[in-house]
Structure to design on (296 residues):
């Protein structure tokens, strides 16, 4: 049976339930001078992008994707879930391209032959957040593992993504570094995206781990959470774009996927990424890191 595109094959309600309510297709005006594309299979005018909730919840995709759609005359359908789910969509041939942030898992994806190309795109960092009262007393700590140890020892409520995302993967790696397997009433596994977890942590005045971009975007919506821990090198958060391998998935829109990878790593798009957040926060929410940007 030929591959069917996830966005059109399932109803919006069914897809929302399947992917934890985290996806939202983005529409943009048609390009005035569309560039012809002839992908290997599927709908030549549609690109299915599987990506993380942070690129969506931060607002980055809303800002930059219209430029790609205008240049190519294509529509980008976005499925925003955790990194693990995004990579699985690619492995299952239900995405043309993925944009994620868990380098070890990206390398495994490539080694397994699921991707034909991977490029660095950008980076930011993770931060440990908590209520202003900071009942655990971790604010200002620069060692993430030590901070989590303090939270565990004191039984301070911690909301985990618990969704196999890049953020969840990073959190688990820090617990491992601390020599702790978190469990108990104080440790809440939400199974939700970053935005939902920040809402839960804010409501419960709990601690959590977040990418900086989504957290800063949420400060505009009234979150009271504050940064408790930052600056530890273990909190580094790089993003990569991967084109799904057409040899493994023959219906992949490979030419359009490669066009997307070329576009998001190009200097003009990297400049848009560098500018994103400057007006609102006085700082970039993501730092460009493509080869073209480094060599410009």
């Amino acid at each position: 049976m030929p591959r069917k595109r996830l966005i059109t094959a399932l109803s919006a309600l069914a897809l929302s339930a399947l992917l934890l309510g985290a996806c939202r297709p983005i529409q943009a005006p048609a390009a005035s001078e569309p560039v012809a594309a002839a992908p290997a299979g599927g709908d030549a005018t549609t690109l299915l992008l599987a990506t993380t909730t942070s690129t969506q919840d931060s607002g980055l995709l809303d800002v930059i994707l219209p430029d790609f759609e205008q240049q190519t005359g294509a529509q980008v359908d976005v499925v925003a879930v955790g990194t693990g789910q995004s990579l699985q969509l690619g492995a299952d041939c239900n995405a043309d391209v993925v944009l994620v942030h868990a380098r070890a898992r990206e390398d495994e994806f490539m080694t397994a032959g699921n991707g034909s190309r991977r490029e660095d795109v950008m980076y930011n960092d993770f931060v440990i957040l908590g209520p202003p009262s900071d009942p655990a007393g971790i604010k200002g700590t620069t060692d993430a593992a030590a901070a989590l140890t303090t939270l565990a020892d004191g039984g301070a409520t911690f909301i985990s993504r618990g969704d196999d995302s890049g953020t969840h993967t990073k959190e688990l790696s820090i617990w491992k570094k601390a020599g702790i397997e978190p469990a108990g009433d104080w440790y809440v596994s939400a199974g939700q995206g970053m935005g939902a977890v920040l809402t839960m942590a804010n409501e419960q005045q709990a601690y959590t781990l977040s990418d900086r971009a989504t957290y800063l975007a949420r400060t505009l919506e009234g979150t009271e959470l504050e940064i408790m821990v930052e600056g530890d090198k273990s909190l580094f958060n790089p993003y990569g774009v991967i084109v799904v391998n057409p040899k493994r998935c023959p219906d992949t829109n490979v030419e359009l996927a490669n066009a997307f990878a070329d576009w998001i790593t190009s200097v003009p798009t990297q400049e848009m990424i560098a500018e994103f957040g400057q007006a609102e926060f006085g700082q970039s929410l993501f730092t460009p890191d493509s080869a073209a940007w480094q060599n410009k």
Notes: Residues 6-124+238-294 form a domain with the D-Maltodextrin-Binding Protein; domain 2 fold (CATH 3.40.190.10). The longest helix spans residues 60-72. The chain has two domains: 6-124+238-294, 126-236.
